[in-house]
Amino acid sequence: MILDWLLPVLLLSVLALALAGAVRRVSLWRAGQPSPVNIISGLMAMPRRYLVDLHHVVERDKYMSNTHVATAGGFVLSLVLILLVHLFGIESKLLAWALLASSVLMFVGATFVYKRRKNPPSRLSKGPWMRLPKSLLVFSATFFIITLPAAGILPEGFGGWVLALILAAGVVWGLGEMVFGMTWGGPMKHAFAGALHLAFHRRPERFGGGRSTGLKPVDLDAPVLGVQKPTDFKWNQLLGFDACVQCGKCEAMCPAFAAGQPLNPKKLIQDMVIGLAGGTDAKFAGSPYPGIELGNAKGGPDSTITEGLVNPDTLWSCTTCRACVEECPMMIEHVDAIVDMRRFLTLEKGNTPGKGAEVLDNLIATDNPNGFEPGSRMNWAADQNLKVMSEVKEADVLFWVSDGAFDMRSQRILRAFVKLLKAANVDFAVLGDEERDSGDVARRLGDDATFQSLAKRNVAVMNQYRFKRIVTTDPHAFHVLKNEYGDFGGHYEVLHHTTFINELVKEGRIQLGAHKGGTVTYHDPCYLGRYNGEYESPRELLAALGIQVAEMERSGFRSRCCGGGGGAPITDIPGERRIADMRMEDANATGAELVAVGCQQCTAMLEGVVEPRPEVKDIAELVADVLVESAEPASRKRDELAVEVA
Amino acid sequence: MQPELNIVALVSVGQHPKSGRARRAEQDARAVELGLRLSGEKVQVLHAGDVAEESLRSYAGMGLKQLRVLQQSAGADASLALGDYLSEHQPDIVLTGVRAESGESSGMTPYLLAEKLGWPLVTRIADIAKIENGEAEILQALPRGQRRAIKVRLPFVASVDNAAEAPRQSAYGPGRRAQLEPLPWVEAADEVRASFDEAPARKRPKRLKMVKAKTAAERFKAATAKSQGGGGRIMKDEPPREQAQAIFDLLLEEGVLR
Amino acid sequence: MSDIIRRDPRAEWIARNRLHPLHAEMAAPVAETRGPSGLIRKNPHAVGFIGPNGIKRIDRMGGNSAAVGMRRGAKSAQQVELPLHKVESPDFYVVAVVDMVGGRLTGHDKDVLGQAHKLIRGAEGNGAVMAVVFGEHKEEAFDKAGVDRLLHLTGSEFDGYCPEQKVANLVEIEKQYQPRYWLFPDSINGGNELGCRLAARLGERPATQAWQVDRETSVCRGSGGLQDITRATPRLLLLAEECADQIDETRHEVLAVELDTRPSIINRLQDCGQVAVDPNSVSLAEAEFILSAGNGIRDWEQFHKAAEVLGATEGASRVAVDDGYMPRFRQVGATGTWVTARVYVAVGISGAVQHMQGIGQCDKVVAVNTDAGCDMVKRADLSVIGDSQKVLEQLIELARDYRQGGAENAA
Ligand SMILES: Cc1cc2nc3c(=O)[nH]c(=O)nc-3n(C[C@H](O)[C@H](O)[C@H](O)COP(=O)(O)OP(=O)(O)OC[C@H]3O[C@@H](n4cnc5c(N)ncnc54)[C@H](O)[C@@H]3O)c2cc1C
Ligand code: SF4
Ligand code: SF4
User: Fold this and answer.
1) Do strands B233-235 and C382-385 pair parallel, antiparallel, or not at all (unpaired)?
2) Nearest Cα to C291, choosing from C355, C348, C370, C354?
3) Which of A238, A327, A420, B245 has its CA 20 to 30 A from that of A184?
């Protein structure tokens, strides 16, 4: 019987080829920059990361999650058993039966994959990925049949030559796709790269329910700043790109893609794969970057990415909203990659588009993005009588005002918040003219030099004073202070104003009436929600005002960006629509008359939508509107007066 | 692009109008930009002052490999040193800004250099359209976007106006790595300048439109005239013709109709 | 106003005092003149004067008693001639080289002339203000602006842009007259350039952007306007606008003076003339007059037509750009261009903050909008509440009429 000797030979040679493929793939990754990982503990943690963390994401799509468990579980089990039964020739009915069972499991899973692929949504890649369900079916069916004799169900040598030949072909196809393709590069590559990617992830904090969203600092003394060519990425970033399954979940969530800007996060990751391995995008079988034709991009490990592989506009379209990262089942870090490449464009090329160069110059010269006089930072509070840290040196709460201080609309939010702080008798102070831009925009625009300079000076100022916590109304400053200043010696407890106000309400330190008016919806700011996991406080506060939030279809961790992050309004890459308009449509769909937000940038973006549209208000404003000014501070004032008079 | 063109752009330390912080000066940066566009990386950028001055790096970040500094102390007269250097090196074109953003801001440097070198000076240029057979065709910036064409033979000095192409963004990395080459230079102290008394600018009161009322009637008219500043005039119910007429009158009065 | 006839003792006194510098003006018109044929003519109307009670009196004092002694309150006020300021055989000159934009003295020129007199007033000796004018001019009121002497240099060599020619002449003036001060308007209309060129030629260190000047010290703006430099007043000054009060209470002689040697030089700068710049190709940032379109425009043809006949540079709000009606480089605002126009006409633009950021430096803003409550109307100096289409239509007609049918003829 030919299969008796052919099968082990095939298995062995495919394994050998797979090994060669693995060596090649690993060497491609190793061309990247060093990045320290703990290999042993990473590998040890991998199964848990796969079974818990990854599945936590996949589970959002129950159908796919079950399908994947069946197919992948069936495949892994089958492969092990195939090696035992057909390569090592262990004659055990039990093993053979187990193999039959696992291949059935895999077959069932594969049929579901097949069904999904019958009419695939546009986010899914076609091409080789359309072949995969068939390969899965062939693989499982072939090994099922081949194993029947071993299980004693059918006699040896049944079916004769013809069947043997068909089965041999099936084995070649199945093994080629599933084993050799896994390491050499095919749809199954995701299993190999994905497993290692989970083991050696650059942000291991993300596993086990943690969060890691701060960008990593650039070494400003490096010979090239930022990522110029694929090999400038860290090796485990390259590995991560290879893990992509082209599921397009990121594409479906990306606001820039939806707005017709030339960005598709899935395509971007695939372009990185092209870059690390060399080649063109002619075979890419998914949606292109809107407005950019397929087939013209080429790259290689040592060629400059933005010259031929990825158009810089693609990188500048991103709002750094992290919707893609949040959604990616393979936990790939799109935003890190995008900002890394932007760093090269800004720090090495001096090519920040739109108003980028001007904003950065202003940040350098005046510490604020619009070039206002640094000494006028406190003008908004001329009538507010705020304590300034340089005078009091100490306070319970440091109120980080942010650049909203220069903007008339944002000042309304700031005043509302101050009103609440005063009503609750919070001991707070501001930095006044000593405050500088947090550096958020500079960093997202790729100018880490300016970011670091701002961060260091801000940290130096803050470290002179004593305070317990920082509170800010700006989620971007909130994120940066909380998650990115640590690298520069600034470790603080930072709260967003909604969290803080919520605390005050819960402690009964401010009394509130009820909000009057129509339907209200709430827009989660990306830098509050996805970056920092604060979804509840704003909603609790709104509930405390007697508001029942009419949630938008995309809310919470799936909230759609307003278009204001990552310097996107500054680089202003044209698309077919405005992201803010789409978000306003989301809000309109709830029938809301008011959109509550927790961010001055979101306020600006949403108010930039042409009327008629729902009103936009910060939660601080909503709360301040219904604040019941308690009699207590007033009576105290009267006492003080009396004392003065006496 | 002319292959052998030898262009020197002179740069000073600028000052941000709001924060007063040192930066690359806007016009000088435009001079460098023009130089870069005319002769690529070969443009020579020259500063008289302190090689340790950080803001020079922001010129370097425009893509210069090297920047020469005639080493001088703060009180020295830069135009003398620059004049000596240029007479020695005899470039084809010397580009400067119109007025410095710091110090005396007199705008005399290009004039003094042209005088010293005996070269023609073209002021406030917006662009150099072409250079052919030793002759340059220059566009001079006139107020409000107008341009004048001027021809001049090399060598010459030109001061670059704000209307010239905006300078490219300065990139941090190349700026860091560029070589700032200090040249020790004989310096002449600027004694006149030393006698200056410098203080932050005082606000200049705007001259009031003085109505020299010769008669009581005129005085009365002046006193009752609607003040110009207080809010805009709103025309709501007039017919379109009248409204348009009001707009038209304003255009005439402002002299923007040509 | 009362028509009571009042006596003006000062005028009478001047009329009597033949040594007074203003005597000639205040004296009554001469009653006897020699006519063109050589005969003595009597002017009966000029004889005598109106007495305090309105009765005509014959003057027996040879014209030394003045009819101007009486003034008729309000009605005659306009006709009062300003006193003539005379400088005979000046001891020194203060030379003001004026810009003469469009052939007339500019406000800035008049400030400089005012400053010139300020430098003379109270100085020892007789100083005269000499204005230097190059080429043809249309100015008729040099006397009222304070010009004692006028050096008018004409000739084809002053046609077009010829700073080198002018400076060579100034150098001759320096030789011939040795002015005590050289004054220039520190302006982009030529004053700054000539002043600097002359300073470099003469080896003078000028005061630039000088805004408070007396004979001892000058206060100048330095550091790009951030600092005031106080320094000893040099011989050559480039004066800021409104440096001194303009002359408005005297008339001046405007005596012509000559330059003995006219230098001949070779111009190294060859003026090839002004380049025709289409207002719509002027960059937004430099444009002087912008007609800007927003979401309130329906008829885009009409809008373009309006911009064309008005000679305005086109601008747009972001919505107009997003909707594809205007190209991106026309966008005004935070993410577009920051404009500095003298007049900004916003048609159908609501005035969102991001748009307003871009027009912060505009002098005059005109709003055309259907909504009287919108932010643009709050900012505007003139707001027209109405449909943009109708207003533009009328505006186009007005502009056509103004250009005297130029548009029709061209068609
Ligand atoms: C980050 C960001 C950056 C932005 N940058 C810019 C920028 O640089 N520049 C910019 O312009 N915008 C910018 N915007 C957009 C800005 O917020 C506004 O959406 C935009 O300026 C509105 O344009 P508009 O006034 O033309 O439209 P609308 O707000 O729709 O206003 C139209 C106006 O026309 C009036 N109107 C309607 N019909 C008529 C009629 N028949 N006759 C007369 N009037 C009529 C209406 O009363 C209304 O006032 C930005 C927004 C964001 C969020
Ligand atoms: S961060 Fe947001 S905008 Fe950027 S690629 Fe991801 S989804 Fe798109
Ligand atoms: S990057 Fe992630 S979400 Fe996007 S296609 Fe790849 S695996 Fe899917």
Assistant:
1) parallel
2) C348
3) A327
Q: Find, among A473, A442, A159, B243, the residue nearest to C383 by Cα.
A: B243
pLDDT digits (tens, 9 = 90+) for A305-334: 999 999 999 999 999 999 999 999 999 999
Is pLDDT of A567 > 90?
Answer: yes
Over residues A151-191, the pLDDT tens digits come to 888 887 777 788 888 998 999 999 999 999 999 888 999 99
Distance in angstroms (rounded) separating the CA atoms of residues A237 and A6 = 40
Q: Which two tokens stand for residue A244?
A: 């992509």
* Distance from C-alpha of A512 to C-alpha of C3, rounded to nearest angstrom: 75
Asked whether A619 and A498 are in contact (CB, 8 A), the reply is yes
CB C315 within 8 A of CB B177: no
What domains are defined for chain C?
Answer: 84-257 (3.40.50.620), 282-400 (3.40.50.1220)
Q: C286 touching B, CB under 8 A?
A: yes
With 80 as the cut, is the pLDDT of residue C357 above it? Answer: yes
Q: Is the pLDDT of residue B192 over 90?
A: no
Residue A397 and residue A493 in contact, taking contact as beta carbons nearer than 8 Å: no
Where do runs of H (alpha helix) occur along B5-61?
A: 26-39, 56-60
Element spanning B149, H or E: strand B147-153
C282 dihedral zone (left: phi>0; alpha: psi -120 to 50; beta): beta
Those residues whose C-beta lies under 8 Å from the C-beta of residue C336, and which sit 6 or more positions away, are C284, C316, C318, C321, C328, C330, C358
pLDDT(C67) > 70: no
* Cα A451 from chain centroid (whole Å): 21
User: What single DSSP character describes residue A152?
Assistant: T
Taken in order C50, C53, C58, C60, the sign of the CA dihedral is: negative
Residues lining ligand 3, Cβ inside 6 A: A 244-250, 265-266, 269, 327-330, 332
Do residues A470 and A398 make contact, with C-beta atoms less than 8 angstroms apart?
Answer: yes
CA A273 → CA A28, A284, A313, A314, C375, distances in Å? 10, 11, 19, 16, 51
Q: For A315-353, b where at least 16 C-beta lie within 10 A, e where not — what string?
A: bbbbbbbbbbbbbbbbbbbbbbbbbbbbbbbbbbbbbbb
Say yes or no to pLDDT of A240 above 80: yes
Mean of per-residue pLDDT scores for chain C: 85
Residue linked to tokens 């600034």 = A490
Which H or E run includes B182? strand B179-184
SS3 A175: helix
Compute the half-sphere exposure of residue A509: CA atoms within 13 Å on the CB side of its CA: 15
pLDDT of residue A154: 83
Mean pLDDT of all residues in A640-644 = 44
Q: Look up the CATH number of domain B7-194.
A: 3.40.50.620
In angstroms, the separation between the Cα of residue B171 and the nearest Cα of chain A is 4
A350–chain B nearest CA distance, Å: 4
For chain B, give every residue range classified as CATH 3.40.50.620.
7-194
What residues contact A502, with CB distance under 8 A and at least 6 apart? A537, A538, A540, A541, A544
Q: Which residues pair with A615 in a beta bridge?
A: A594
If one residue of A407, A610, A611 were mutated to test the ligand 1 pocket, choosing by the most ligand atoms within 8 A of its CB, it would be: A610
Give the position, in ligand 2's atom list, of the atom nearest the Cα of A253: 7
Q: Is A408–C353 a contact, with Cβ atoms under 8 angstroms apart? A: yes
Residue in the structure block whose two tokens are 């500048």: A316
| Residues A576/A260, Cβ–Cβ less than 8 Å | yes
What 3-state DSSP class applies to A59? Answer: coil
Burial A12-39 (b: 16+ CB within 10 A, else e): eebeebbeebeeebeebbebbeeeebee
- Structure-token pair, residue C124: 């020892």
In this complex, do A225 and B172 lie within 8 Å of one another by their Cβ atoms? yes
